[in-house]
Amino acid sequence: MKEDQHRINRKIRGVENVRLVGDNVEVGVYTLEKAYAIAEEQELDLVEISPKAVPPVCKVIDYKKFLYEQKKREKALKSKATKVVVKEIRFGPQTDEHDFEFKKKHAIKFLKEGAKLKAFVFFKGRSIIFKDQGHILLLRLAQELEEFGKVEQMPKLEGKRMIMYIAPKKK
Questions:
Q1: Domain parsing of the chain, residue ranges
Q2: Do you find a cis peptide bond into 155, omega within 30 degrees of 0?
Q3: Distance between CA atoms of residues 57 and 49, nearest Å
Q4: pLDDT in tens, 105-135
């Protein structure tokens, strides 16, 4: 925890006047000593909120409670952030029709759930000579999944894999 992110109480130096805000406080510009007195009277802390303002803005609050609420707010924001899930579907260069349809159904399910799709053709041994078949297979998959997602990265050969990414369409 960074205790030094705000200057509090007697650590506020180098200014004569401060703008005071907070609950149970008359908002206005006070001398630093008067602001200390108001904070002590309420048994709270004088916390510098905006040091770059002229005059600096200080708030009369319970500092520990303020830090706790700030941490709680950050945690709530973090939990609302979307986590990207990437699901993989693997093909061979000579995947037959039934297997293709079966894997396409799974791909549709993944995209409807909001997950990204990483479809790739894995070339074993000498099957690398069928690069064009793998490319055609991935493009066909992209075309058939057009209404569920959009291609984020066109098929690209990386080592023994030809990879394509499809992102779900926003609702």
A1: 3-78, 86-168
A2: no
A3: 6
A4: 998 898 888 888 898 888 888 878 878 888 8
| Fold type of domain 86-168 | Translation Initiation Factor IF3 (3.30.110)
pLDDT tens by residue, 138-165 = 888 888 888 888 888 888 888 888 899 9
Instruction: Write down the architecture of domain 3-78 according to CATH.
Output: Roll (3.10)
Structure token pair of residue 58: 């200080």
- Please classify residue 131 by burial: count the beta carbons closer than 10 Å to its beta carbon, then call 0-12 exposed, 13-18 middle and 19+ buried: middle
Does residue 1 register a pLDDT over 50?
no
Q: How many Cα atoms within 13 Å fall on the side-chain side of residue 42?
A: 18
Report the range of poorest mean pLDDT among 68-72, 123-127, 167-171. Answer: 167-171
Output phi, psi for 84, to 5 deg.
-85, 125
Bridge-based pairing of strands 161-168 and 116-122 is antiparallel
